[in-house]
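Quick note —
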Amino acid sequence: MSQGGKHYHHGRTPAAWAGSIIALVGFLICAVAFLMGPNWLLFWVSIVVILGGALVGGVMRKMGMGQA
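Predicted structure written out below.
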């Protein structure tokens, strides 16, 4: 069980949701970047956002908001 007595199943944790939503935004930015020409600066910004989603999810998991 995680902190607070809550039990999560199948990745339905605040850490998983936050990481997934941030990564989704990054992938959407990436799609827009390629539709614009491609716009390489926007592409690299999207890569940073996607990696940021992984980082946020990992940090939140270490803080006890994810599944062990």
